[in-house]
Design brief:
This protein has 24 helices and 20 strands. The chain is α+β, with helices and mostly antiparallel strands.
């Protein structure tokens, strides 16, 4: 007797749209294994569900908790795998605005134990990541997450990534208002929206409750919103400073102000309008220039603003734009304990230093936010499960992850802090230094990322250990600095906005490669990532701790009273800082000191190892190919229904597959078409059948007749023979749609070669 699957166990517990999405992914997996789905299409599809390949050449993780050798004897593997089907990869899990419940934490802990290596990683986008996950397990993993309201959809790929927000929004003493319900609405609205499926690259939104703090780091985002209030007709109105075109990467761009006050009712439609302009005009072929920041820079913010406003005027009304607003005034988090002051309570050993850095006084009297510091963003499944228990006792559902890779427990009564601290100590989660120089942020680097050059996590672990050991001797001005590390120039560790940033590179000394890091100074974490730093020197990885000491000592010795680190760097100048570090750039010969020739946490000699094409977004695949791929999946699903004896579902699904393929072609003319079959068939007939664009020279428009006949004469008697025939017709129609699209694409290429003003104009569109 077959064991009950998770799909069967969770039937009825998953939102229908999420269940359908996971079913579709599982079918795509099967088609790919059968060789019936192109790898390029499947790669982008799995990436859009957060399923990555990962790097294996390092053979261990810099997690400080364990050393895991990457050997899988049950699959005959003792080194790096060839494909995702050979060995585990990574699963990213979206956590909009970082909001978690204890129930969700329990499920995440279970999944880490059952499918991963027992370690969960909090990312710089408030997500979770599980490493060493077998791709065959991902559908079950996704269903178990969906049953508690979590999705992995569009956690990666050329799509809208996780919507981040200030983790203390709602309890912040300086905010204009709580942006949480708006971030939640934006996340739901943009998830899977048809206008966000044809981007050339990823698209990252962020919300901030105020301007002056780091909050949502709006300035470094593709699209961002800072809460604002304005008096309109004598009444106070909520809105947002609306920004677009920010981004880090190799060449960072500051976001541009597109509207100084966007009324709250325009939040979703204007986000949609920006998405449509980006999808239509953004670069598709050259991935290096496919982010929206390049489009804004190319057009200029004034022209981009004009295009977005014009797009907004032409969009059909959508009731979802404002439906959520009626619930915003009623949105409120609920504490589970009564507010009681801390005064007079006995405080355990170590409590004071933890309290000083890890506790934030909420604007609601008697309540605080407690930061659970996670070194390198990691915690074990056992720690997360027990932390969920502490949340149930002290915080309730009021839990957030942060972009600094920590977890916050909100609405903790002050009087509960000593007991909470003692429980965290038992879990190994009571380290002080949250939000200080000790709290080093790092991307995965060479541990698991194929683009990693140097070990960002290894360096971060070393710096954290050294800074913790010297914490009591650190000057107060130094304690407030941020250190952020990326394994390469792509700034996944956000090194551009750190006080002291580093990104990995390498140098060749004789016949050896030596791991290095560029030192980046001048970044600004506050003011929503108010300034980006620049690299000033490349230093051997093993001398970076010495560089941190030199920089911080120089700051303490030379700073003027009350002078911030950014102002200090501006005053003394980059040349002085470069001269300060110059002696650290030298590398001794290998026979003099071989330690320089290995990276932190790795005893082997440094190589660039298993570097390859990164899977941050995958190849750019036109939306029409995804639409046609979806039609193929539905045709395959119809066949499964037929095989199971459900001939009615086989008939209806085969018809839906043809409708899907027809809609894909209609989209090639940038035509927004309603999702009702009658409209799709009408537009398809007018634009592709009547014009003979769909016709094949051998069979003419025969395959189109399959669609027309089933549309005009719905099946009344269902049989195996009838279902079989329609499934075959659907497959032929989809093949004809692919061929039609191929001809259209070829015509566009030919048109691009036309001279003068005709260049780039397709003949058939």
């Amino acid at each position: 007797m077959n064991a009950t699957t998770w799909k069967e166990k969770l039937a009825g517990m998953i939102a229908p749209e999420l269940a359908a999405e996971i079913d579709a992914y599982e079918i795509q997996m099967e088609l790919r294994k059968q060789g019936k789905l192109d790898e390029k299409i499947f790669a982008e599809s799995r990436l859009r569900r957060g399923v990555y390949g990962q790097r294996y050449d390092n053979g261990h993780r810099h997690d400080g908790m364990r050393t895991r050798q990457l050997e899988y004897p049950e699959r005959g593997l003792t080194k790096g795998p060839e494909t995702l089907w050979d060995a585990p990869g990574m699963q990213r899990i979206k956590i909009p605005f970082g909001g978690l419940s204890p129930e969700q934490m329990d499920v995440l802990a279970d999944l880490a134990e059952e499918y991963s290596d027992g370690i969960l990683h909090v990312t710089t986008r408030q997500d979770f990541q599980l490493h060493f996950v077998h791709i065959e397990d991902t559908p079950s993993l996704m269903r178990r997450l969906a049953a508690v309201g979590i999705t992995t959809r569009e956690a990666c790929g050329n799509s809208v990534r996780n919507v981040t927000a200030c983790p203390i929004s709602g309890v912040c003493r300086d905010e204009a208002f709580d942006v949480t319900p708006y971030a939640k609405a934006c996340s739901r609205f943009l998830l899977g929206h048809r206008d966000t499926q044809d981007f050339g690259r990823k698209f990252k939104p962020a919300f901030s409750g105020c301007k002056e703090h780091a909050c949502g780091l709006v300035s470094m985002h593709d699209i961002g919103f800072i809460a604002a209030r304005r008096i309109v007709d004598g009444k106070e109105k909520r809105g947002f400073e609306f920004y677009v075109g920010g981004g880090l990467g190799a060449v960072p761009h500051q976001a541009k102000l597109i509207d100084p006050f966007l009324p709250e009712e325009e939040l979703l439609p204007m986000s949609q309008a920006v998405s449509r302009v980006f999808a239509r005009l953004g670069e598709k072929k050259n991935r290096q220039r496919a982010r929206i920041k390049f489009l804004v820079a190319s057009l200029g913010i004034d022209e981009f603003r004009r295009l977005v406003q014009e797009e907004r005027r032409t969009m059909p009304e959508d009731p979802r734009w404002t439906a959520y607003l009626k619930d915003v005034p009623r949105y409120a988090e609920k504490p589970i304990r009564q507010a009681v002051p801390l005064n007079g309570l006995k405080r355990p050993e170590g409590f004071e230093s933890w309290y000083r850095t890890n506790v934030y006084q909420q604007k609601q009297g008697g309540y605080v936010v407690a930061t659970v510091t996670l070194p390198l963003g990691d915690l074990t499944s056992q720690q997360l499960r027990k932390l969920a228990g502490l949340a149930r006792e002290y915080s309730g559902d009021n839990i957030r992850t942060t972009v600094e890779q920590n977890i916050l427990l909100r609405w903790v009564s002050e009087a509960d802090l000593p007991a909470l601290y003692q429980e965290l100590r038992k879990l190994g989660l009571a380290q002080p230094g949250g939000g200080t120089i000790v709290d080093v942020t790092a991307c995965p680097g060479t541990d698991t990322c194929k683009l990693g050059i140097a070990s960002s996590r290894g360096l971060a672990s070393e710096l954290r250990n050294r800074l913790m050991a010297n914490n009591l001797q650190l000057d107060e001005a130094v304690r407030g600095l941020r250190i952020k590390i990326s394994g390469c120039f792509n700034s996944c560790g956000q090194h551009h906005i750190a006080d002291i940033g580093f990104y990995g590179n390498s140098r060749t000394i004789g016949s050896y490669k030596v791991p290095h890091f560029q030192v980046v100074l001048g970044g600004k974490w506050t003011d929503n990532a108010g300034a980006y730093g620049l690299a000033i020197a490349s230093i051997p990885s093993k001398r970076i701790p010495d560089a941190v000491v030199k920089i911080t000592d120089f700051y303490v010795q030379q700073r003027q009273k009350g002078e911030s680190f950014q102002n200090f760097i501006q005053r003394v100048g980059k040349k002085a800082m470069k001269d300060l570090l110059d002696e650290l750039t030298k590398v001794p010969a290998h026979n003099v000191d071989a330690s320089y020739y290995s990276d932190w946490g790795d005893s082997r000699e440094f190589t660039l190892g298993d570097m390859g094409t990164g899977e941050c977004a995958g190849e750019v695949v036109p939306r029409v190919q995804f639409e046609l791929s979806a039609a193929e999946r539905e045709a395959f699903e119809a066949q499964l229904h037929m095989d199971s004896g459900d001939y009615r579902m086989a008939d209806e699904t085969a018809y839906a597959a043809m409708i899907q393929a027809a809609k894909a072609l209609v989209f090639t003319e940038f035509l927004d078409v309603a999702n009702d079959p009658a409209t799709i068939v009408t537009e398809f007939r007018k634009r592709f059948y009547d014009t003979q664009l769909f016709h094949n020279k051998f069979v003419g428009g025969k395959f189109a007749q399959y669609l027309f006949r089933r549309h005009e004469s719905p099946t009344s008697v269902y049989s195996k023979e009838g279902a079989h025939q329609l499934v075959e017709e659907a497959q032929l129609f989809i093949e004809a749609a692919y061929a039609c699209y191929g001809r259209i694409a070829a015509e566009k290429v030919s048109a691009a070669a036309l001279p003068g003003p005709l260049a780039g104009l397709p003949k058939m569109v």
